[in-house]
Amino acid sequence: VIKMKDVDLANKRVLIREDLNVPLKDGKITSDVRIRAALPTIKLALAAGAKVMVMSHLGRPTEGQYEEEYSLQPVATHLSSLLGQDVPLVKDWLDGVDVEAGQLVLVENVRFNIGEKKDDEALSQKMAALCDVYVMDAFGTAHRAHASTHGVAKFAPVACAGPLLSAELEALGKALDNPARPLVAVVGGSKVSTKLTVLESLSKLCDQLIVGGGISNTFVAARGYNVGKSLYEKDLIPQAQKLMADLDIPEVTDVRVGTEFSDTAVATIKPVDQVADHEEIMDLGPDSAQALADILKNAKTILWNGPCGVFEFDNFSKGTEVVAQAIADSDAFSVAGGGDTLAAIDKYGLADKISYISTGGGAFLEFVEGKVLPAVAMLESRAQN
Ligand code: 3PG
């Protein structure tokens, strides 16, 4: 693909697609990781003397409608304070945007436009007409074939990959194509069903697969143990059994259980075969967590997506913390991705000790599954003609 650094941006109208889909609570940004990750790209374009327009989606608004709760205004305000430069938010932008060289505007949520998610051709052409150069930099949305990530790249005079997208592809490629071994993957989170394809792909790639969280409960049940009231998926027990037969998946030996799903629930440590009907597993026990930490210590490459327990509740956060700390302490090339994973890394203050933190959630998983990311495929096809 063509890279932004190889394109002359001076005085050009440059339309950059970022993934500024940040979590908001009561109108406040709760994690600005994605905004900070986009900053170097934006600064490079500004320094090159480009007329910069940045676009992104936020959440999943009703199509064709302005809804204030999905406005990018909080993002514009935050971007402006990070850059120390005015960042106007342009509400109606499809018919043209006024922007000077060295200036930046943010255009309103792309998903307010009819046709965005359908990759509508007329909409894509309108976006393309706004610019001389289109920069796709939204790795987190590269798995979506939408007008702002895919269609626009077909029609823009020049379509290239931004530095963040390039860095993400490079880091994930390093972890997955010909990795230093052992390659250990940690896949946590609540459900096997949402990560089954990723677990299956990883089972062919990695040397050891660590499962955590609700996913691990299904594996515990698949070994024939009672999981009480724990979150688990009975229907997926056969798949869990197959994965255990195919691959070395470390077995949980002890767990932390509670009697209610709440942040005041008391944690009791129990051997895995002694969970009572009224209890739910919400975290790894200390022995199991330590066993995983020992495995991670020897890893040469680590891929991490998903917490190992209900880490939002302090009484059940130890397992995730021990695993996160072990990843941070290891000499392995480590890549972490996904919203909850990033929140855990933040909670334990380990961001500087992970080799690469991906801004992708769904895109990260699809890449690991070996799927073609449509936005990247489009840049590749543009580079060929
Ligand atoms: C994400 O948060 O994973 C991306 O921003 C994509 O969002 P989407 O799942 O709503 O397309």
Q: What about the largest sheet? A: 6 strands, parallel
Helix/strand order, N-terminal first: EEEHEHEEHEHEHEHEHHEEEHEHEHEHH
Report the end-to-end length measured between terminal Cα atoms: 11 Å
Q: Quaternary arrangement of the chains shown? A: single chain
Please tell me the CATH architecture of the largest domain by its name: 3-Layer(aba) Sandwich
Strand order of the biggest β-sheet = 5-6-4-1-7-8
Structural class: alpha/beta
The tally of strands reads 16
CATH class of the largest domain: Alpha Beta
Strand content: 15-25%
CATH superfamily of the largest domain: Phosphoglycerate kinase, N-terminal domain
Estimate the global geometry from the Cα principal axes: elongated
What percent of the residues sit in helical stretches (DSSP H or I)?
A: 25-40%
Mean pLDDT: 96
Q: Number of domains in the coordinates?
A: 2
Describe what you observe in this structure.
With about 375 residues, this protein is of the alpha/beta class. It has 2 domains: about 5-165 and about 375-385, Phosphoglycerate kinase, N-terminal domain (Rossmann fold, 3-Layer(aba) Sandwich), CATH 3.40.50.1260; about 180-330, 3-Layer(aba) Sandwich (Rossmann fold), CATH 3.40.50.1260. It contains 13 helices and 16 strands. The strands form 4 sheets. The chain has a 6-stranded parallel beta sheet, sandwiched between helices. Helix 11 (about 340-345) links the parallel strand 15 and strand 16. Helix 3 packs across helix 4 and helix 7 (about 215-220) packs across helix 8 (about 235-245). The protein is elongated. It starts with 12 loop residues before the first strand and ends with a helix. The model has no long low-confidence stretch (mean pLDDT about 95). The structure holds 3-phosphoglyceric acid. 3-phosphoglyceric acid binds near residues 19 and 140. 3-phosphoglyceric acid binds near residues 21, 141 and 362. GO terms for molecular function: ADP binding; ATP binding; phosphoglycerate kinase activity. Keywords: ATP-binding, Cytoplasm, Glycolysis, Kinase, Nucleotide-binding, Transferase.
